[in-house]
Amino acid sequence: MKNKSFSLINIMGLTIGITVCMMIFLFIMNEFSVDDFHKDGAHIYRVMRGFQRDGKTNEVAYLSGPYAPALMNDFKGQVLKAVRVNPNDDLITVGNQSFHEKKVLNADSNFFTFFSFPLVKGNASTVLQEPGNVVLTETTAKKYFGSIDNAMGKTIMVEKDRPMKVAGIAKDVPSNSHLDFDLVTPLSNYKDRSWMTTWINNALYTYVLLDPHTTQAQIEKQLPAFMEKYMGGDMKKFGLHFTLSLTPLKDVYFDNVAFDGVKHGDKTVVYIFLSIAVLILLIACINFMNLSTIRAAERSKEVGLRKVLGALRNNLIWQFMGESILLTAISCILSVGLLLLIMPWYNQLLGYSLTVSWNTLPIYLFLIGIIIIVGFLAGSYPAFFLSAFSPVQALKGRLRLGKGGASFRQVLVVVQFSISVFLIIGTIIITKQMCYVRNKQLGYDKTQTLIVPIDNNDIYNNMNVFKTRLQDQSSIESVSLMSGEPGGFFDGYAFDVEGHNNEDWNARTEFADFEFVQTLGLKIIAGRNFSAQYPTDTTDAVLINKTAATKLGWTPDQAIGKWIQNKVRDDAKRRIIGVVEDFNFQSLKENIDALVIAPNEDRRVAVVKLKPGNIQANIDIVKREYTKAAAAYPFEYKFLDEQFGEMYKKDIRQQTILSVFASLAIFVACLGLFGLASFTATKRFKEIGVRKVLGSSVQNIVILLSKDLLKPVLIATCIALPAGYYAMNEWLQNFAYKTALSWWVFVLAALLTFGIALITVCLKAIKAAIANPVKSLRTE
């Protein structure tokens, strides 16, 4: 209370630092708790299928139906259980209401005994045994029937032709589960599908439960022989090489697998959060140490008197440690209140709501740990420094802190601002890269282009009529039906290629109609496009991109007329009729891959290019035609540029995180600098008065007070610049296409930091410089 400004600065800095730490702690607890509620989770594994591509093994989470029973049969006693899960979406009709549910799982009958998703109604062992049964979550049951009790035994219609009885109600799936569902139906309804009977197929997830005495390595050692036994013929026939591996359930969430349809986290984001929390808390602790140390001279007589009255050094150390812990405890209480206020914003930043409860033991242990650790860390140097005073010298008057203390304070300021400059550099570079990504010419036109999913039987059966009706509209420029839009799904296949006998050649594929090139605005650089004037194009022609031609050792012109055969999808060889200019159909984190564009039947999206004009009116036209083609389903769409932006959600989140926390870091550092400036101005109060009387200008006095305080900021900048360059250069390696590390970025970061620090110091320095010298020269 006697030193309000210093206490306020300390408490404010520690509050911010502890709040950030608590945010990170809750986030990390949530991330690493994913799937930990399953009873047998330690022995559950997801089976992954790998394939060789460009010398690397890529993995997919999808297998076909025969794998699970074969694993159970061939690994008796080692694989105790297996369950297959097929993610799906269905039209659900309840009375006169229809719902297009996107989170539907088709699962084996042992799904609820294999995993620990508790049922509030129904028997876990039998609830999925009958093909006509369905399990709803509590929320879904209430949405359909008003209450859980009303739902049991009722009938819902699936896809307009399959009545199913509600045989069970499951608790809502916790957010810390990689699997998510609103409905579960028996997989036995699909037993005759090709993906349930054919080995070479991608359709469903397969999980296995191993005997506790069986290790992952023991099973994986036997999997090559397993694959040779069941897939050897197909692999030889199609020139493919498949492998199997096991991923522990606890690792599925952080497993970086594309297009597997389950929830995934990112350890990079976790580590970034953790690093920033530690750095900001360190800055706050440095403030505490600095400000407590410079107050030491003010308390020298107190320390001397206590020593004369018999206080031992240990007594003084614990006294000052106690003060430090008290201030930390106050900051902790304020931090809890602040965190409660900002939790909605924090959940929005993360993209989901944290499931961690405040009433758990780890939370309390964390708070106690913060108080003790931060209290000791922040109070250690001041306590030992203050307790070392000689009582004789202390009682004679105020002590000088000496060059050693001043040097130590400067080192701490250097550390603070090194961290701040580093975070500012990171923020600028990530922002610059995201701007580069948004503005890079991708080789196709993504403006005013809609993506309409072909994700139900109605639109699939009527997609050609839907396309024709849209093409007849004057406001629609072009429409194309395809297997994947840019940024979407592009499967990989092995090909036989003319002139490359006995050589496995792999490429990405796009299956599309004749309007593909026109709709996306691609450029043909050799040959011609697909054309209705050549009816044989449907069965005999393909386009490739420039990269594919280059990888095959051809110029674009040399590629024309060569034959190429998809080993899985085509019985006949197709001729290359055209080469398109390269376009970024995948993320800019990846180099452009070889791409083969063929008119095979595989339509998953309709891409609609709108003419300039009233966008909403044009969307309404597309909606009207969609409703005619698939009246039972809601019209859903997104813009192509939005789809491309989806690929960089993680990086945009990192940009936001760094921006917020870099601002907090520089704010907390400047709090400390302001405290140092206040102390300097107070300590040199009479000197300033004498200088003013002798003719010094306000400008001269401001420079005098500022130069010593800004020197460590300058040193910090020199340290942080190379560190920032190295770290951000490493981060940019995640992108195949990246912005340059321009010199002006580092100059801007240095100027921003120095400018903010200068303003902070000058605010106090100017106040001291314009004060009436009579007040400072007046004797006590």
Helix content: 40-55%
Using DSSP, what is the number of strands?
22
Low-confidence stretches: none
End-to-end span in angstroms?
Answer: 23 Å
Strand order of the largest sheet: 3-4-9-6-8-7
The number of helical elements comes to 27
Q: Which structural class do you get from the secondary structure elements?
A: alpha+beta
**Radius of gyration from the CA trace?**
34 Å
Arithmetic mean pLDDT: 85
Question: Major sheet: size, sense and barrel closure?
Answer: 6 strands, mixed, barrel
Tell me the strand percentage band: 15-25%
Shape: globular
In brief, what are we looking at here?
The chain is 51% helix and 18% strand. It is α+β, with helices and mostly antiparallel strands and 780 residues long. The protein has a 6-stranded mixed β-barrel. A 6-stranded mixed β-barrel has the order 14-15-20-17-19-18.
